[in-house]
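Hey Z.,

So I finally got round to the NAP thing we talked about over coffee. Here's the setup:
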Amino acid sequence: MQKAKAYAAASATTPLAETTIARREPTEHDVHIEILYCGICHSDLHLVRNEWSSVMPAVYPVVPGHEIVGRVTRTGSAVKKLKPGDLAGVGCMVDSDRTCPECQAGLEQFCASMVLTYNSPDKHLGGVTYGGYSEAIVVDESFVLRVPSNLSLAGAAPLLCAGITTYSPMRHWAVGTGKKVGVVGIGGLGHMAVKFADALGAHVVVFTTSPSKVDDALRLGADEVVISRDSAAMGKHAGSFDFILDAVSAEHDINTYLMLLRRDGNMTLVGAPEKPMAVGSFPLIFGRRSLSGSLIGGIAETQEMLDFCGAHSITADVEVIPIQKVNEAYERLVRSDVKYRFSIDMASLKAE
Ligand SMILES: NC(=O)c1ccc[n+]([C@@H]2O[C@H](COP(=O)([O-])OP(=O)(O)OC[C@H]3O[C@@H](n4cnc5c(N)ncnc54)[C@H](OP(=O)(O)O)[C@@H]3O)[C@@H](O)[C@H]2O)c1
Ligand SMILES: [Zn+2]
Ligand SMILES: [Zn+2]
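And the result:
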């Protein structure tokens, strides 16, 4: 067992603070990674504040962080995929049973035994797993991704969650040339969705509550931007979308967006607000529209997404912060005041 510096929340109401955690000695299949950058996902905040207590209660202390990029420092004797010195990425999962139909289909995120990067039972050390707000992590090589070397590391970290969570449903629903695609909420996930939809060749319309994000949305790849509080502007798009991705972190009216879908159009929710949202039958019945959800993506698809980003030079737009500013960053995340992802420079933790 080894010690690692980390930032943890001791309860739902206490600020994150420095602590020391245990990391296991690498087994023969494990990779030891020195963490260089870790993105701040809104899920980190939901979980730290126990906003998902009914489905995923927080077990304190919580060390969040599942947008991890680092460098391999050591590998177990059986590791083939990576060697010391390689860049490595870790997303939201660190293990699964690898035998169930979901795992066999490459959809480990739906495995009943999937182990989340933080707040899941830790079969090696007991207690729960600890995430990427830390100087190091030890992960089975099957759940470690290769990071293209041409990408900025601070901007690549958010690909491990925000990237795959938006790429996967777009691939599933065949976003591409000739499709009209909406993206609701321009935060960490939403801004990646715009980049992917644009790179895949779709006509992209952004829906935002923030007038200050209009110019950025166009720069990120949107063809049109609609202020979602403007009902006349919304109405102009009625019945016209093939696909809408909703990446909003708080309660909002999803029926308004369902009405914008064309016949057989789909709206997928990736946002996970604390409280349930009302769905009217009529927006679905008329036009045989569908509403669905999506959870991150499997390991093979995550690698595909990273390679796609390498080929198209896609990274997140990040504001790099030292870990000492994490609590301030959480407050700004609640106010939708981030353009468009915080990425923690983990050198700041080492220096502490
Ligand atoms: N399904 C999955 O696998 C998965 C993976 C990762 C995250 N998530 C979830 O996805 C959600 C988004 O995560 P994120 O990290 O992208 O969050 P984020 O950076 O905070 O972005 C959320 C965006 O939602 C919009 N928004 C916020 N409050 C709103 C409100 N009251 N009404 C309407 N719009 C509002 C804002 O966009 P505008 O300013 O443009 O309006 C904001 O920037 C979170 O709930 C997170 O837990 C799900
Ligand atoms: Zn996330
Ligand atoms: Zn499985």
